[in-house]
Amino acid sequence: MCKGAPSGMPISLRRIGDRAAPAQYPHCSTRIRRPIPVPVNRLCEEARRKIPPGLKSHDWKLEIPDGTLEASIMSNFSIGVDLGGTNLRIAAVDEHGQLLEKITLGTKVVRGKDHVIHEMTGAIQQLAAKHENAGALQGMGVGVPGIIDIKTGMLRESPNLPGWANSNVREEIEERLGTRVILENDANAAALGEKWLGAARDVEDMAMLTLGTGVGGGIVFGGRIFHGMTGMAGEFGHITVEPEGVPCPCGNRGCLEQYASATAVVRMAREAISSRRAGALERAASSDPEFSAKAVYNLAIQGDVEAKRIFGRVGRALGIGIADLVNALNLPMYVVGGGVSSAWEAFSPFIFEELRQRSMVYAATAPATLTDGHGASAQVEPGGPTKTIITRALLGSDAGLYGAARLPMTGNS
């Protein structure tokens, strides 16, 4: 509380240490503008109530111009990068999750790695310079699709970035910026973003599946990404859900991403078309040269039987995969994100149906409305306050961007 200042005086509280408090009012930093009919002590108390939980008094400032109370946060920030095969997005985000600015560029992969890294580092430098007065820059995080050697910063393989395999991307970025950078798998970054600001913000531990061109995933324990021995933990797309199923480029058969990705949805639709049992799908495919999973979803919500069957297969595959995760990890929350998650209402009922059948852990911890007395649910009575939550992601395509920005704040490396 500010003591010793005369009532009715306008006051400006800034970072203690950045600006010395006037000697005549040693308990607070003040600046007289003109008298206002509000006691200073009450203004201090109002300002303190505006400080978010967890912040200290030296992290905020109070301005009272012309009798108007205004409190604002003095925050550090970091820069996050989401490097995709199509878009390159760079954002400055403060430590409370406030987006300061975002830049979106096309990823010109055809012009080579050097060109993309040049554009990326230029945008990072631009944001760092523009927001240098907002607070201290805590660092940069870069989310990249593919397999990363966390210790060395090598990008081992990336289907979305041809020509980048076995290159030390982290070292090249650091050389251009002259500072340390944290390189991370994009699905791991998305999981961290959802943990920080999205669907999992109220739990300490979570796992996320990302459904896009393929299926990725990430695990967060205690607010930090779990990497495993070599940085490859969370490859949920390669969980086997059909032992003799569709061959996967990884060398296995029946991987989850062969049934629950956008690529899989289109493949299953074309298989149905070739079998002559999907008239609506055939018409949609013939009229649209860029026939996509979204077109199949549109038919499903219109009631097309074959399109609905395809998303039923998506949901069942996800249910089998998530049941394995629930049994193995026993986490409080599993989040489903990525572009295909937009079809949540078309496939999610089948996820829960499979979970009830296949996971005793889920049966014991499922919300009461999601047990049906069949399969594993028939063996265990759900009870207790602790529940296993399966839910859709909230941050959309920004999850990886926020997660990348969060990396320097949490010490993930």
What does this structure look like?
35% of the residues lie in helices and 18% in strands. By secondary structure, the chain is an alpha/beta fold. The chain has a 5-stranded mixed beta sheet with strand order 5-4-3-6-9. The chain has a 5-stranded mixed beta sheet with strand order 12-11-10-13-14, covered by helices on one side. The protein has a two-stranded antiparallel sheet with strand order 1-2. It is globular, with a radius of gyration of 26 Å. The protein starts with 39 loop residues before the first helix and ends with a helix.
Radius of gyration over C-alpha positions, nearest whole angstrom: 26 Å
Question: What structural class do you assign from the helix and strand content?
Answer: alpha/beta
| Helix run count | 12
Element string (H = helix, E = strand): HEEEEEHEEEHEHEEEHHHHHEHHEH
Q: Mean pLDDT across all residues, rounded?
A: 83
Strand runs, count: 14
Global shape = globular
Distance between the termini: 40 Å
User: Can you give the helix content as a percent range?
Assistant: 25-40%
Which strand order spans the largest sheet, edge to edge or round the barrel? 5-4-3-6-9
Give the oligomeric state. single chain
Largest sheet: 5 strands, mixed
Low-confidence stretches: 1-40, 50-73
Percent of residues in beta strands?
15-25%
Task: Present the secondary structure layout.
Elements: H1 40-50, E1 60-63, E2 70-73, E3 77-83, E4 87-94, E5 99-106, H2 113-130, E6 137-144, E7 147-149, E8 154-157, H3 169-177, E9 181-185, H4 186-197, E10 206-211, E11 215-221, E12 224-225, H5 257-260, H6 262-274, H7 279-287, H8 293-301, H9 305-329, E13 333-337, H10 344-358, H11 360-365, E14 389-392, H12 399-410
Parallel strand pairs: 3-6, 6-9, 10-13, 13-14
Antiparallel strand pairs: 1-2, 3-4, 4-5, 7-8, 10-11, 11-12
Helix pairs in contact: 2-3, 4-12, 6-7, 6-9, 8-9, 9-10
